[in-house]
C-alpha cells in the first residue's frame, strides 16, 4: 500500500480503565457530526471468537479459507483467522478521513495518552509520538498539551490538528 493510500491515524492509548473507549466514542460522534468519515480499530488483549461453531462461515474457515466475509442488508463482517498488525488493518480503511485507534501502544502513529493516575505518566518516556495527555485534571510539566477528558471539543480539535499536520 502506498503512503498516499494510508488515511491519517490517531491513537488513543493508556492503561486499562482510563476511559479510552468512552473518549474514542465521543470523538467519533463529534467528528461524524462534522461530516468526517471515521474508522476505528480496537486492540483486544485476549482471544476473540466472533464466529459461531457449525455456522456456514465457521465451516468455511475450518475448511481452510484465509478470509471469510458475510454480508447482509445491514452490515458486513470480515473474519481473518489470525491476528493482524495495525498496518494490515489500516489497509482496509482507505476511504476514511481519519482512523482512531484504541490501543496498539507500541505503534508509531501520533498518540493521545490517557492518564488515570500520576504513575501512568511514565508511558510518555516509553512510547513514541505522544502528542498530548488526557486526564481528569490538567497535567503540567511534561512539555505536552494537556486536555481534560470531558473536553471532547478540545480533544477533537487536537485530533483534527494532528490530521492536518501529519496527514
UniProtKB/TrEMBL annotation:
The coiled-coil segments of this chain are: none
Q: Per its UniProt record, what Pfam families does this chain match?
A: MobB (PF03205)
Q: Which domain of life is it from?
A: Bacteria
What's a single GO BP term from this record?
Mo-molybdopterin cofactor biosynthetic process
Q: Which InterPro entries match?
A: MGD_biosynthesis_adapter (IPR052539), MobB_dom (IPR004435), P-loop_NTPase (IPR027417)
Report a single Gene Ontology molecular function: GTP binding
- The Molybdopterin-guanine dinucleotide biosynthesis protein B (MobB) domain is annotated at 9-134
Write down the NCBIfam families for this protein, in alphabetical order: mobB
User: Which protein is depicted?
Assistant: Molybdopterin-guanine dinucleotide biosynthesis protein B
Amino acid at each position: 500500500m502506498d503512503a498516499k493510500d494510508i488515511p491519517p491515524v490517531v491513537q488513543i492509548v493508556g492503561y486499562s480503565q482510563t476511559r479510552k473507549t468512552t473518549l474514542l466514542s465521543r470523538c467519533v460522534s463529534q467528528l461524524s457530526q462534522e461530516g468526517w468519515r471515521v474508522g476505528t480499530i480496537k486492540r483486544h488483549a485476549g482471544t476473540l471468537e466472533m464466529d459461531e461453531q457449525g455456522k456456514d462461515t465457521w465451516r468455511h474457515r475450518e475448511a481452510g479459507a484465509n478470509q471469510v466475509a458475510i454480508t447482509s442488508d445491514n452490515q458486513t463482517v470480515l473474519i481473518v483467522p489470525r491476528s493482524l498488525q495495525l498496518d494490515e488493518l489500516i489497509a482496509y480503511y482507505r476511504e476514511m478521513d481519519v482512523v482512531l485507534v484504541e490501543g496498539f501502544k507500541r505503534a508509531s502513529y501520533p498518540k493521545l495518552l490517557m492518564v488515570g493516575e500520576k504513575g501512568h505518566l511514565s508511558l510518555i518516556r516509553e512510547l513514541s509520538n505522544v502528542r498530548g495527555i488526557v486526564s481528569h485534571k490538567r497535567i503540567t510539566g511534561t512539555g505536552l498539551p494537556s486536555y481534560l477528558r470531558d473536553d471532547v471539543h478540545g480533544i477533537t480539535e487536537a485530533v483534527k490538528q494532528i490530521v492536518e499536520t501529519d496527514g
